[in-house]
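In this section we walk through a basic example: taking a raw amino acid sequence and producing a predicted 3D structure, encoded as discrete structure tokens. The instruction is simple. Fold the sequence below.
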Amino acid sequence: MSIGSAILAPLADELTGRVTVPGDAAYDGARAVWNGDVDRRPVAVVRCADADDVAATIRFVRGAGLDLTVRGGGHNFGGAAVADGAVMVHLGEMNTVQVDPVRKTARCGGGATWAQLDAATQQHGLATPGGTISHRGSVD
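The resulting token sequence is shown next.
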């Protein structure tokens, strides 16, 4: 399925982030995931800057009757973050990490990597015993 940029214009106007479509210079990089064998082509990649962008994209996708995928880090071996004909919500720019050293907790954006989480927690003498691949999360 192909939808034109004009159909996406109202969504793009509402976003702080940006919409990338086939033919844009950034499209191939935006749709790429860790597993290079996965070569799927969404109708658009929405690089969300914040939760409002995510909500606006979901509303748009529902209204347009399109499929939706979410790319947190793009590290799923099967490539679930990208589907042909879908709109991909790309969380790579939502990568902040907030650490509460008193409670020993962290709040991470959907695009944060293990390296970012490790760096933020280490500043407070804390460790994150979950991931072993530091680029897991946003890989671009």
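Looking at the output, two observations stand out. Residues 95-132 form one domain. Residues 40 and 134 are 25 Å apart (CA to CA). In the next section we compare this with other chains.
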